[in-house]
TrEMBL record:
GO terms for cellular component: basolateral plasma membrane. Keywords: Membrane, Transmembrane, Transmembrane helix, Transport. This is Aquaporin-10-like protein. Belongs to the MIP/aquaporin (TC 1.A.8) family. It catalyses: urea(in) = urea(out); glycerol(in) = glycerol(out); H2O(in) = H2O(out). It is found in: Membrane. InterPro entries: Aquaporin-like, MIP, MIP/Aquaporin, MIP_CS. The chain crosses the membrane at residues 56-79, 91-108, 138-159, 192-213, 225-243, 276-296. It is a multi-pass membrane protein. Residues 1-16 have a biased composition (Polar residues). Residues 1-22 are annotated as: Disordered. GO terms for molecular function: glycerol channel activity; urea transmembrane transporter activity; water channel activity.
Length: 338
């Protein structure tokens, strides 16, 4: 603001027709650049003081923020559709809200943590050996925390609308129930076993498609296109598999907001409703994720032909790029490889 004010004053002086000395304008410009550099330097110093160098902490923060974005847009879309009684959106709006929430959540966190955004995804990557088991509990905690904070944000933003819609009572079931804005609940016709199968199949489909999108030996995709297609996977699952129980597919996505509703006034009914439904969106997605991972690995990825680097023998690696003098010390049996 200081630089802008001085600059506008300088323009005003010149436009009014006054004749400042020839060296006044360069001096003024130098003064402006000096002030700007000092302000930038001060901000950079402040930001550097906030910098966290621990890699695990940075990854956990990225997961927390990525899930926060996902739930903010996802549950926010549910809140708008529900409290407006389908006047400002419909079921497709909710599908798009979660799909785009996933897309932007991935963009937010993928460069730091890999954008798991889902304990079931983190678990599957640990099983595949692509993610350290030691980090798993930390990832899960911060994923749930991000979902909890996002649900709290949506609850605060739509507080008046929720109260008006429900007549001042926070209920889990009934014609004006609002707990479903934040967490998933089964349809009246859905059995407990049917709910387990619903979540297992949906999450298996999610992991199968996500692994395919990340498999560079299957199809090489532009880097910026992958988050968009992950969001498209969530969209198509919602369109085709959402009516039974709301396609949670993500333990953090369901448990974090459910925990918020428990402490925010909906009470113990959030854990009792649906015949004790709350544990199914936690356990079944993990089973489904492992199943989808196993299917993709056994039917696609394990059958890829080896790359040239994988075909290279240990002897070739040992002798590649060495001079004649260096090759005198190679192990017996490696001479033929040279």
């Amino acid at each position: 603001m200081k630089g802008q004010t001085l600059l506008s004053q300088a323009h005003g002086t010149v436009s009014c027709g006054s004749d400042p000395p020839d060296d006044s304008v360069p001096a003024l410009r130098a003064h402006l650049w000096t002030d700007s550099a000092e302000e930038t330097s001060g901000m950079e110093k402040l930001l550097r003081k906030c910098q966290i160098r621990n890699q695990l902490v940075r990854e956990c923060m990225a997961e927390c923020l990525g899930v926060y974005v996902l739930i903010l847009f996802g549950c926010g879309s549910v809140a708008q559709v529900t409290t407006s009684q389908d006047q400002k959106g419909q079921y497709l709006s909710i599908n798009l809200g979660f799909a785009l929430g996933v897309t932007f959540g991935v963009f937010v966190s993928r460069g730091v943590s890999g954008a798991h955004l889902n304990p079931a995804v983190s678990l599957s990557l640990c099983v595949l050996g692509r993610h350290p088991w030691l980090k798993l509990p930390f990832y899960i905690f911060f994923q749930v925390l991000g979902a909890f904070l996002a649900a709290a944000t949506v609850g605060l933003q739509y507080y008046d609308a929720i109260r008006t819609y429900s007549g001042g009572e926070l209920t889990v079931s009934g014609p004006t129930a609002t707990a479903g804005i934040f967490s998933t609940y089964p349809a009246d016709y859905l059995s407990l076993w049917g709910g387990v199968m619903d979540q297992v199949i949906g999450t298996a489909a999610l992991l199968l498609c996500v692994l395919a999108l990340g498999d560079q030996r299957n199809s090489s995709l532009p880097d910026g296109l992958q988050p968009v297609l992950v969001g498209a996977v969530v969209l198509v699952i919602g369109i085709s598999m959402g009516s039974n129980s709301g396609y949670a597919l993500n333990p953090a996505r369901d448990f974090g907001p459910r925990l918020f509703t428990y402490v925010a006034g909906w009470g113990e009914d959030v854990f009792r409703a649906g015949g004790g439904w709350w544990w199914i969106p936690i356990v079944a997605p993990c089973v489904g994720a492992l199943l989808g991972t196993l299917i993709y690995e056994l039917m696609i990825e394990v059958h890829h032909p080896p790359t040239p680097s994988e075909l290279q023998t240990p002897c070739q690696e040992a002798t590649e790029g060495k001079t004649g003098l260096e090759l005198e010390g190679v192990e017996p049996g490696c001479e033929k490889a040279t």
